[in-house]
Structures are given as structure tokens and as C-alpha cells.
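Reply to dn_fold:

You asked what the input looked like. This is it:
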Amino acid sequence: MSDKIKGSPSHYKENNFLPKSINFITSHDGFTLKDLVTFNKKYNFANKEQNRDGDNHNNSWNHGVEGPTSDLLIKKLRKRQQKNLLLSLFISRGVPMLLMGDEIGRSQGGNNNSWCQNNSLGWMNWDENQQDLELLNYLKYLIKIRKKFINFFNPISSTNKKEIDNLVNYYWHGPKLESPDWSSWSHTVALSINKGENNPLIWAGLNAYSKSIDFYLPKSKSLWLKIIDTNQSGTSKPIPITDTFIKLDNRSSVLIISEEVFGTKII
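and this is what came back:
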């Protein structure tokens, strides 16, 4: 995962400190983002090929119920997972690619190969009353954050590796500082983006575990501000963090930025 967030430098041998990757969660050839958290398997029966077309390996999870549900807890969890995935995409180096409609919760009813469907399965619904406006506003805010701090998330202004390393240094953590668990059964990871070695300016924590976990924070030279918490509905003003740790709710992510670089102006 660390390699992907850093723009997959292991794939690029020459000048691999510069971002060159195209990053995406979903594409036209597969599930939409909403379907990725709604279905365990594809439903391509409308394509008249007995559900044989389309990829069977979708890396999806329905979170307890296959397809749409009225269960509010499952619906809330699915929304949170979409936010988690989008956050991981927009804090990664490289060019983020977004599938049309993922920003408003577009579904294809579990069809992961809808190119032949000239109907509601493949169409974009422009009716705001049928769109997930909370998800849309979250993504707009996320884009603003990325653009404002692009020199940290995607440094491309210099071709000098020493200059970039002085501005952007990645440090990996778990619930404990500098103790990431890269095992296959691990459900947590955190990273800080430092200026030099001892000045963390951005911290992101991802908790994919089923229970809440306390994550210890690196010591910042200025006040930490919680900017994004995917367990919260909507977006809120930056929240100061005065403790040495932060609690991440189950299957949620948090982005915090130091006041030194964020400033006092609300985006």
C-alpha cells in the first residue's frame, strides 16, 4: 500500500521520485464505486450472455447484504467506505482518475460490463434529487484540499530529488508511531508527510478494522487540525487536536494537517 500512495515508484526505474502513475479505484470496465461496496458478485444478466461476460474478480464487498438495502447501519458504512477509498486516492502521488458518476453514488445495479446497455444501467442521472449530494460535497472538499497542498501530495515543481526529499518525506506508522504492520492480516496504517526529517505537516490514518482504535500522532511544531473524518456526515470546520493521539472509528479514515501549513482560513 505504501508504494501505491507514493505513486508506485517501484514500477519506474528512472527518476522514480517524480510521480508518473495514473491512480484509480474504479474505471468504466468494472463496478462503479457504489457497486463496489454494495455487491459481492456481478449481475450482468441483462447483457444476454448468461452472466459470463465481465470480470469475476472485483475485490468488492457488500457489507452484509447483497444489493440495495434499507438497513441504515449498512448504508452508513457503505457511504463511509466510499469516502475512505476516495481519500486514499486523493492523497496519493500521481494523477487521480475518477469514474463518471462515482461522485454522486451512481449504480449500475451490479453490472460490471454495461457498455452494451443504452439505458438507465449505463446512463448518467442528472436529477439532483436522485444524487448523493453529501458524497458530492465531500469530494469537492477533498479536491480543494489536494489542490491547496499539491506540493505535498504530488510534488512536481522540481526535478531535483534532494529538493523534493527536503519538502516531502514519508514516514509510516500504525497505531504506534513508526510501527507500521505490513502483514496480510493488518487492518491499519498511518502516514505522515514531513518537511525534512523532524517536521511532520500532514498525517493520515486509515482504520479498516471493525473496532475503533487510538492512533498516536507525531509531534508537530504547530497545532494539529483535523480536516477530514470519514465517519462524519458532511464537512466541518477544522478541529484542533490537543491530545497526543486521535481515535479512529471502525472502518474510517482521518486527515489532519498542521496549522503551520493549513493556516487559519477555512477552505
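The beta strands are 22-24, 95-97, 169-173, 188-194, 200-207, 213-216, 224-229, 239-241, 245-248, 252-258.
Hope that clears it up.
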